[in-house]
Amino acid sequence: MIEMRHLATLVAIKETGSLTRSAKRVHLTQSALSHQLKRMEDYYRVMLVDRHTHPLVLTSAGERLVKLAYLIREAVETAEREIQQDNSKNKGKLRIAIECHTCFDWLMPVMDDFRGHWPDVELDLVSGFHSHPVELLYSDRADLVIISENTSQEGISFSPLFRFELLAVMANDHPLTTRKHLVADDFVHETLITYPVPVEQIDLYRKVLLPSGVNPERRTAELTIAILQLVASRRGLAALPNWGLTNYLDYGYVSARKIGHLGLWSDLYAAVLSSDSQKNYVQAFISSIQQTCFKTLEDIEPFDS
Amino acid sequence: MIEMRHLATLVAIKETGSLTRSAKRVHLTQSALSHQLKRMEDYYRVMLVDRHTHPLVLTSAGERLVKLAYLIREAVETAEREIQQDNSKNKGKLRIAIECHTCFDWLMPVMDDFRGHWPDVELDLVSGFHSHPVELLYSDRADLVIISENTSQEGISFSPLFRFELLAVMANDHPLTTRKHLVADDFVHETLITYPVPVEQIDLYRKVLLPSGVNPERRTAELTIAILQLVASRRGLAALPNWGLTNYLDYGYVSARKIGHLGLWSDLYAAVLSSDSQKNYVQAFISSIQQTCFKTLEDIEPFDS
DNA sequence: AATCATTATGAATTCTATTCATTAAAGTAT
DNA sequence: ATACTTTAATGAATAGAATTCATAATGATT
Question: What span, in angstroms and rounded, lies between the C-alpha atoms of B247 and B296?
């Protein structure tokens, strides 16, 4: 009999195109998934993934099962929501604060989806950006904040969301495009275009430039497209998440390079008061983030706290 | 995470109203189901079945999950059928022969359902009744026969379907209604109303009357309703499956008694040529019988060969 | 050709579901 | 009421299957 976990594995394989990456996502080893897949294929006597391609692609049978998996996941979630209904545990408010501008890109669809499923939860976005967003939880001005540093504080519960790579973006004819990857010194004589937030909240400063004592000129813009326009017209460099960039890179609008030879990676957490962490709509919101992000954003990775 | 097997358990509990009976149906012990149920309830922090009633009834949360279970079962079966499609393994013919008249009552709905799902399988009913129905398989005049004796012959594969109780049916004012159960001798001066088939194919004769040397007068009728009419108008007794009787008994049209103090039980098997037993539409047909019978017929029981 | 990355495989292990052996509880009958 | 029967619950022991580990095979990349 096929089980939920098998379907989850197939979904991961489809979304990551690799057993190794899938394994991380479902918190098992690559070997486990290989065995699982083999068992499924033996059971159905049908190939489910084509191993001769990179990334792995599902056969039509595999695709059919993934379709089934999505359908079942939806149905299960709906049913599970409904059986909690009498408990009136799904009434409440969820004020969300974010630290990084780019998060808007995926947060909006998540919120829209969530609103449909949890009509009795008042969803709000806390406006403005805050130097110590966790403070918003203590002072009861927000119920959930998306942050990129796990400072593991008293009474706060952190849930890992995903990890993504920040790429240095530059005009196509920029001299630095000859490099394979950039290092701190490469930024000395450049202008950095960032969102209008304190430097401590910008990973590139916090993890690369400030430790090396490099402090390039800075210019700010509110919107991602605005930043990209400035970059394209040679006003400077920017550091942006790879998943927000793929379209622009594919069309050759700008170029991107790794920052450091391992790349500059950023972890995203959802932080809530520990007293809220068991509320079912809070957990639903967090898993909703993961689900839609892993499904729609390319090349993001799961991680453990 | 909830798994398919948990949903199957809930379906069984709903359909049987008891953990003990459910356990037989899913081929586990009562203890296993009790643990399973507890785990599910702990997981959801919601009661799923009301233990204070007999038969067990599901709470609204339990019912919701059973609804989910049916939906998922459908979806899984559809998907599994579709992924086999390229294999052209689902083309073929299935000529069905039956030994007992009453089987018609449940076979028709099963066939209708099956026809919808396996359009490329030619379904036929082999007409007439045959003293050695397995011969029909050897001589290629039928592909699947429903029989009540497992003679375990060479090259034939038997699949247990279900077990049901045969009750003696009599007019409401019949003197034998005073008995708790009937024994062979009670039939001596009675007229038996049966389907028009050889006595060797009638369980009451084969298992009770012939062994005791009792041979009452016999009268035949083609249809179950006709038999019941004769019984109601005091023309004799009949032995019929309990599940075909519940309606008539509830309305007080006739009375029924056990045959022997343990009751007279009959086992039903599906027999196919071993060479056909792995064909997916054959397996689908057999599991379709079980599914609809367990869902719609009351008080039938699973059994193992 | 050599190296790097990914998947496959068989044996060992771990972990969880199930069974076993009882107890507790509920329902029937005396 | 009381015994008797049936059914469910429980905790410990067990069995079995899924996962990991260690390594080989395969395929991609330089």
Answer: 13
Give residue B50's identity as a one-letter amino acid code. Answer: D
* Architecture per CATH, A89-162+266-296: 3-Layer(aba) Sandwich (3.40)
What's the rounded Cα separation, in Å, for the pair A31 and A9? 12
Fold topology of B91-162+267-296: D-Maltodextrin-Binding Protein; domain 2 (3.40.190)
Q: Which CATH architecture has domain A4-83?
A: Orthogonal Bundle (1.10)
Closest-approach residue (CA) in chain B for A69: B76
Q: Please, what are the averages of pLDDT over each run of 10 residues along chain A (305 residues)? A: 97 97 97 98 96 94 98 97 78 91 92 94 87 91 92 91 95 92 93 92 92 95 92 96 90 92 91 94 96 93 88
Measure, in angstroms, how far nucleotide C19 C1' is from residue A3 CA. 22
Chain A, chain B: beta-carbon pairs less than 8 Å apart: 62
At B168, which helix (H) or strand (E)? Answer: strand B156-170
C-beta contacts of B18-24 below 8 A and 24+ residues apart: B18/B55, B18/B56, B19/B56, B21/B301, B24/B301, B24/B302, B24/B303
Q: Which CATH class is domain B163-265?
A: alpha beta
Contact flag B84-A44 (C-beta cutoff 8 Å): yes
For residue B157, how many C-alpha atoms fall within 13 Å in the half-sphere facing its CB?
Answer: 13
Within 8 A by CB and 6+ apart from A111, the residues are: A96, A123, A125
Identify the residue among B2, B3, B4, B65 best suited for mutation to test binding to A, counting A beta carbons within 10 A and taking the highest. B4
Contact criterion met (CB below 8 Å) for B169 and B258: no
pLDDT cut 70: percent of chain A above it: 99
- CATH class in words for A164-265: alpha beta
Residue B62 DSSP SS3: helix
φ, ψ at B242 (rounded to 5°)? -60, -40
Domain ranges, ordered by start, for chain B: 4-83, 91-162+267-296, 163-265
Structural contact between residues B264 and B165, judged by C-beta atoms closer than 8 angstroms: yes
Matching CATH topology for B91-162+267-296 and B163-265? Answer: yes
Query: Any residues with CB less than 8 A from the CB of B105 and at least 6 apart, and which?
Result: B224, B244
Identify any residues that bridge with A271 across adjacent strands, giving them in sequence order.
A145, A158
Whether a cis peptide bond, with omega within 30° of 0, leads into A55 is yes
Q: What does the pLDDT look like over A22-43, one tens digit per residue?
A: 999 999 999 999 999 999 999 9
CB A284 within 8 A of CB A118: yes
Buried b (16+ CB within 10 A) or exposed e, B20-34: ebbbbbbebeeebbe
Average pLDDT, chain A: 93
Closest-CA distance, A55 to chain B, in angstroms, reads 22
